[in-house]
Every structure is written in C-alpha cells, then in structure tokens.
Amino acid sequence: MFKLNSGSVCYHSVQNILSSSLISRNLKIKVFRIRIIPVVAYGCKTWSLTLREERRLRVFENRVLRGIFGPRRDEVASEWRKQPNELNDLYSLPNISRVIKSRKLRWEGHVARMGEKRDVYRILVGKPEGKRQLGRPKRR
C-alpha cells in the first residue's frame, strides 16, 4: 500500500546531495519536495490513512529532514546533538500527512462533481447497483 520502500530508495539515490554541505538548505528542501514526496505519495488519493500509517509517514519524513538539516552544535554544552523537536520549526512547509489529506480532498471534490452514472461517484456516495451473490466469496 505505502510507497515508503520506493521513497527510501529515492532518498538513498539523492542522499549525497541532501547531506552535502556545499548545497543550500533551500535547494535540499526543493529536492525533497520535488523528488521524494511524489514517489511516497503516489496513489495516495485512494488510501485509507490510519494513525499507524500517519506515524510511519512522519517517521520517514523526520528521517529525511534530519539528513537535510544535520546535527546542530550546542553552544552551552559544546557538543553535537540531533534536532528532534526543532525539525518542525526549521521545515515550515506542510508535512506529508497534510499533503496526502489535501490531495484526497481534492480528488473527492472531483468525484463529487462527476455525474451520477459514473462508477467512481456511485462508490464514493455508497449507492452500488445490483445484488451480491449468496455464500462465500470466490478466491481471486
């Protein structure tokens, strides 16, 4: 269902760009938004997003963002540390879950404007035609 494996492959293919100190953070974020998010969110319009899946998406996104922003030097303790709580402040764009929810809503708007004879509309509204067969469903 999820494309997190494909997203991980895509992330590792551009990891040398995202971890480079020669490239600006804005460019790294653009690479993340243009290259990785579409791979992960492919087909998201038909997903039923549960809390567990949202958490998995958030974990993936935080892993990529930690690779982009890297560790930070703490001035008081003079040591390097990760930025678990500061990622949301540094990355001001909407997270993957919000992107997927907005795409789902946009798709449902398109379907709601379709005619009543379209199968997609009937499935969304919940008015399927015909009767189901009696007995156990056939294995497919």
Description:
- α1 (4-13) runs antiparallel to α3 and α3 runs antiparallel to α4.
- The protein has a two-stranded antiparallel ribbon.
- The chain is mostly helical.
- It has helices spanning 4-13, 15-18, 25-40, 51-69, 87-90, 96-112, 119-125; strands spanning 72-74, 79-81.
- It has a domain at 4-93.
- It is elongated.
- A hairpin with a 4-residue loop joins β1 and β2 (79-81).
- 10% of the residues are buried.
For this entry, give a set of tags.
single chain, 140 residues, mainly alpha, 7 helices
Outline type = elongated
Segments where pLDDT lies below 50 for 5+ residues?
none
* Counted beta strands: 2
Strand order of the largest sheet: 1-2
Mean pLDDT value: 80
Give a summary of the structure in a few sentences.
The longest helix has 19 residues, at 51-69. Helices cover 55% and strands 4% of the residues. It is mostly helical and 140 residues long.
Task: Summarize the SSE layout with pairings.
Blueprint: H1 4-13, H2 15-18, H3 25-40, H4 51-69, E1 72-74, E2 79-81, H5 87-90, H6 96-112, H7 119-125
Antiparallel strand pairs: 1-2
Helix pairs in contact: 1-3, 3-4
